[in-house]
Amino acid sequence: MSGPLPLTDANATTNGTAEPKLDAVSSVSPTEAPLTEPWSVNSVLSTLPNPTPTTPPTTPIPFLHLLERLKTTKREGWRRFGITHGESISDHMYRMSIITLLAPPSLSNTLNIPHCTKMALVHDMAEALVGDITPVDGITKEEKSRREAETMGYLSETLLGKWGGGEQGREIRDVWEEYEEGKTRESVFVHDVDKIELLLQMVEYERRGPEEAKGKLDLGEFAHVARKIQGSEVKEWARDVLREREEFWKGRGENATMLGAGKEL
Question: Where is this region: Disordered (predicted)?
């Protein structure tokens, strides 16, 4: 999850900044684990409570078990604001996949929507081992990319390498790489979907208010991601969401940051 601050030498996506994470499965964050050697898939696997194959199994079950980490690992950008019971990585990807299914005709008639849905479901899959890296982690774009590529190699070649002849694993990795490169029309759309999902969650958390029920929860610094949306259709959705946010704060008689963000789109 990227937010208001860029990764060191990196282009921010939608992760925000936050304190290091405690993974609900292993209780040790992949980015936080006390490693005495450079980050590697094996170094993270060694911290997990249950054995994970280092050679290709003949069943997808170990892969499916590892995906549980996406269900239990929280998105980090919100934790800096005291949101400790927020969305998980898989929560984020699930709503993204539903958003792709609701693409307006101007997009659904020209894009491969099932492919977009698949991309939404796998685009953050590497975070099962890499974790949700944020700017405060001090990890460069190159190092982040290396970790994610190594993880996707492990998932697709080791855990899924012997399942179905490895074809499904290769397809998952190919879709992930397409998203990372961001050159196809489908990948551009899914990047936009990534951002609108963040904006939706931002407004929902603000409406819910702080977990400790005091003060106010102003998440306006995340609104800047709307400026990075490329497609006109998703820009229109972003205007609607940001208009909702303005009405919410106006109704409370309070001011908040970035209330005019929708007018800039």
Answer: 1-34
Q: Which of 48, 178, 76, 196 is nearest to 122 (CA)?
A: 178
Angle between helix axes 232-252 and 185-208 (nearest 10 degrees) is 10
Task: Assign domain 41-264 to its CATH architecture.
Answer: Orthogonal Bundle (1.10)
Domain residue spans of the chain: 41-264
Q: Does the pLDDT value for residue 173 go beyond 50?
A: yes
For the segment 64-79, what is each residue's pLDDT rounded down to a tens digit?
999 999 999 999 889 8
How far is 243 from 147, CA to CA, in rounded Å?
A: 38
**pTM for the complete prediction?**
0.85
**Tens digit of pLDDT for each residue in 112-130?**
999 999 999 999 999 999 9
- Amino acid, single-letter form, for residue 13: T
Distance between CA atoms of residues 155 and 172, nearest Å = 9
Q: Which is more confidently placed, 92 or 262?
A: 92
> What band does 2 get if pLDDT is binned at 50, 70 and 90?
low
